[in-house]
Amino acid sequence: MDRREAMRLGLAGLVGGGTSASVPGLLEARPPAAPVIAINVLLDEPIGRIEPAIYSQFAEHIGGVIYDGIWVGRDSKIENVGGIRRSIIDHLKRIGPVVVRWPGGCFADRYHWRDGIGPVDRRPRRFGRWREETETNQFGTHEFLEFCRLSKVQPYLAANVGTGSPEEFQQWVEYCNAPAGSTTLADERAANGHPEPFQVKFWGVGNESWGCGGNFIPEDYCSAYRRFVEWVPSYQTPPFLIAAGPNSNDLDWTRRFFTRWADGSRAKIHGWAPHYYCGTTGHALKFSVDQWYEQLHRASVMESLIKDQWTVMGEFDRNHQVRLVIDEWGSWHPPGTEINPRHLFEQMGTLRDAMVAALSLDTFNRHAEKVRMANIAQLVNNLHSLFLADGDRFVCTPTFHVYEMYRPHQNAKAVRIDVQAPDVPFRIKKRSERIAQIAGSASRTDDGRAVVTLSHLHATEPAEVVIRLHGARAREIRHKVLTHADLNAHNTFEHPDAVVPRSSRREVHGEEIRLTLAPASIHALEIPLG
User: Fold this and answer.
1) What is the pLDDT of residues 196-240, one digit of tens each?
2) Which of the residues 143, 328, 338, 526 is marked catalytic?
3) 328 is a catalytic site residue
4) Alpha carbon distance 55, 65 (integer Å)
5) Which residue of 191, 214, 292, 469 is 20 to 30 Å from 175, comparing CA positions?
């Protein structure tokens, strides 16, 4: 069966309690040609609450992320709110109360926050960090925090350890959070237009300190971290302090940092931030079926990273007071698909990238007790972005739709899911590999719904599955599916709806739900429980 024929047959109906039911816009389920795959949702085996921050973003001063992406300027003809692109505001609200990390990234470790406050025409112009261009500082602390307020998200500010000082960091906290009239910095904030404190909670102490953030060894970074956090004021918003973790799953970096951290007085630390990019296989738009699987295989490494990092952290923090904050992750493809040559590291996002996002979000959900926050890189016009924008043109990538589909998990209690799926064989050059055909996660909401999300990785064949709810019965199914006949399908300014979810809703009764999953498809089910 070729992929298009599989698509024709694969968007299938639902069965609840043994009774077949057709679904509007989808085809009737057919008898399976292969064994039915069992997916057990263990509703009485909670893992932890899924923080909305797991669905967070990252916005750095690089390429077209800030200028042209988020900031278009107050005098722009592009629809904006105080210079901030309205389309970004409106679409970010649809994802939920997530967190956006700013101003970097590597940019953070050469950024001095005072450059970005006060009258715009008096702000200094600086070297742009990423290439020989000028950073105008039009977009600074007030603009970013206003962007967060308008978008109904929380800010996460990354401090400059590479070229800054503990005093500079602590004064930034004071400027943002000191009560009105309490200090000179609070008065300066008021003079710049915001008398009341911003109440910024999340603070990163450096970025990639093993590389662009100072080329530290872990022991030296730990010593610097101690100095930076010793005198951080709390005011009415106790800071959640995040230390720069390793490059990918470097256990040596983690163990050496925490060995020094545990030596003597332990500095305050609430989050540990490893970065993991699954890179690329082939090209953003040109790849083979084997490379489809290889990219997803690379994304699945996130599972072992979380488990391994958590185990090493537990050697020094037995009660696991420190949580994981994976504040950079995603695909990273070669150049060649930029919508604007000025947009550094911009890439076209396809169905394959949406699948990487779904696999990763499901992994974070399954480890909700370990992962406090995760920030895909990046929000717009860079790497694994949710949006592309150029002048007055704007489009959502397939990855955005995954985030919106998965929103019902936010603030729900993750529960254990057992997927009895076969592996799919593929090749990496001359080496044989395998990857699970289906992955997913499940949660239970406080208002009595089960939320199940599934990624069906098989590139060409549909799959018959039965979802068994252990501990409850279904009353209804609200089903969204994201898929396409082409693995490299993507949305463009000219064709913004090439890859968008399809929805259906159907009454069902029973503990079992039968589905036929289309090839290369992402599914989100909300199931009110009886």
Assistant:
1) 999 999 999 999 999 999 999 999 999 999 999 999 999 999 999
2) 328
3) yes
4) 18
5) 214
